[in-house]
Amino acid sequence: MKHANSFSDYSVEELKGILLLAEKIKQNQQAFSHLLDGKKLYTLFEKTSNRTYLSFNIGMEELGGKSYNQLWKASNFTIGDLPSEVKYVGRNVDCIMGRFKKSETTHAFMDASIVPVINGCDNTFHPTQALADMLTLYEKTGHFDVKVLYIGAKNNTYNSLCEIVTKLGGTMYGLTPFSQVMGVDDSFYKELKATGRYIELSNQISKDDLKKVVADVDCVYTDTWVDMEFFTNPDYAEKKDQIISMMMPYQIDGELMAGTDTMVFHDMPIHPGYEITQDVVDAHLETILDEAENRRHAEKGLLVYLITGKLDW
Fold first, then answer.
1. Percent of the chain at pLDDT above 70?
2. Where do the Aspartate/ornithine carbamoyltransferase Asp/Orn-binding domain residues begin and end (predicted)?
């Protein structure tokens, strides 16, 4: 039984197999509409969500299965013994997807569960977003060994994106002036650097040198500078203002993208005027929406693999 958290647990063949299966299902959804007949998915949300909620629930339905959703605050996980509650859930369903605030919760679920558990985003990894990103890049470039430049905070999205890009033979450039709280240490990035395909750019890089990198890569990727849970939280306002002030020189704007055909990705929700300007959003919105839609398709490939153990459909 496999879980989905860090891609270190997956081989290159498995990752490519999941992505190619996702593409196959996407291209002929009707042919695979009964693949998970009778199967059940439990989704549990401690964090807010649009894309994760819709993509997993609609995706499971499109495969013929059913999903059952619960908010963390409405569950007995808030008051009971977590391992026994997880084991109980596993007696009722074939897979669990949890969107949690802390990686410790994700690991506790995976340690206790008798069915596959998918990390739907915690403070360390966001594997389903990275699968969707890679599926989109593969669709648009025709190859897996892509070049990606990420500009923003080191966070869960960044960690998973770095893992999948380097694992599939691509090159990952990171311009990350600060890190958000997460469950990895420096050894995680040292291992990425050891691949020879992970390059951290200096925070002092000039605009001209950065534009050269932009022109050379397939995709420029950004994410919110402030965790979505705190963006409108008045208690977080001072820290939010400090982060925005520090990050504004690294905003993805029209000047940075001028003269290139490089794609722009954003995992949404977008905050125009902060990590990205409105004109760049407008120019690349269809690509960003393709990326967001591919959450559903990539997750279908993952669900089929975890529940059936097969990729050759």
1. 98
2. 145-306
pLDDT of residue 296: 98
User: Which of residues 148 and 238 earns the better pLDDT score?
Assistant: 148
Q: Do 59 and 303 meet the contact criterion of CB atoms below 8 Å apart?
A: yes
Share above pLDDT 90 across residues of the chain, in percent, rounded to a whole number: 89
Tokens standing for residue 87: 């084991």
